[in-house]
Design a protein that fits this description.
This protein is α+β, with helices and mostly antiparallel strands. The protein has helices at residues 118-132, 144-153, 165-181, 202-206; strands spanning 17-20, 25-31, 41-47, 57-58, 63-70, 72-77, 80-84, 89-92, 98-103, 108-115, 159-160. The radius of gyration is 17 Å and the shape is globular.
Length: 217
């Protein structure tokens, strides 16, 4: 897809698509964190009926913002559960346990902002690629050695809720060196780019500020 010469660097990958066939997620990139001065990632997320994030977790250094434009999504944020529909928004601050899942028979569409999003893309993009290659379990979680290698390197990005963090650290401390010795990497560059490019939804673009962020609602 040809871009105008004056397209901002953060928008040059706009429309690039990546998918996770296990969790039912399809993501269209809107703002590239590797080119944004504040490392902002924004995406247009499509979640098929029955789709959901793979596991409860929190982000030690990341803020996530969500704006639903179609369908319904259930959210657990801290100890509170919410059902969001078109026009509804939610924010997840750092170190906040959360989970989300699609609700109903209609594909959910959500604009998501992740700040900072550069290392998030490396990790989640790699997990999507591993899912496409059949290297995850039925929930979309990578196999134990890979999970240990990735999680040990990206503890600033994501911590899963179970098992407890102290036990994760002990288990991953044993498994990660084995995984690395077998050639496993924390992330995979080949999964971070896609040849599939679509025209972004005008509705999605209307929700972005000129510098590529999700507008406050």
């Amino acid at each position: 897809m040809t871009r105008p010469a004056d397209t901002p660097a953060f928008a040059r990958r706009r429309g690039e698509v990546t998918e996770n066939p296990v969790t039912g997620e399809r993501v269209v990139i809107l703002t590239d964190p590797f080119e944004h001065p504040d490392k902002v990632l924004t995406t247009h997320l499509f979640v098929a009926p029955g789709g959901r994030v793979s596991i409860k977790h929190w982000h030690p250094t990341i803020t996530e913002r969500f704006h639903v434009i179609q369908g319904q999504v259930g959210f657990l944020i801290g100890e509170e559960e919410h059902l969001l529909g078109p026009g509804d928004a939610a924010e997840v601050p750092p170190n906040t346990l959360h989970d989300w899942w699609q609700v109903g028979e209609e594909t959910a569409e959500v604009i998501v902002e992740v700040t900072p999003g550069d290392r998030f893309v490396e990790l989640v993009g790699s997990f999507f690629g591993l899912a496409r290659d059949g290297k995850v379990d039925r929930k979309g979680v990578p196999k134990p050695l890979q999970l240990a290698v990735s999680s040990s390197a990206y503890r600033d990005v994501i911590v899963v809720a179970s098992p407890p963090p102290w036990l994760q650290k002990a288990i991953f401390g044993v498994l990660a060196p084995i995984g690395r010795a077998r050639g496993l990497k924390p992330y995979y560059e080949e999964y971070l780019h896609s040849d599939v490019v679509v025209e972004p939804s005008p509705e999605a673009l209307e929700l972005l500020t000129p510098d590529g962020r999700l507008r406050q609602t």
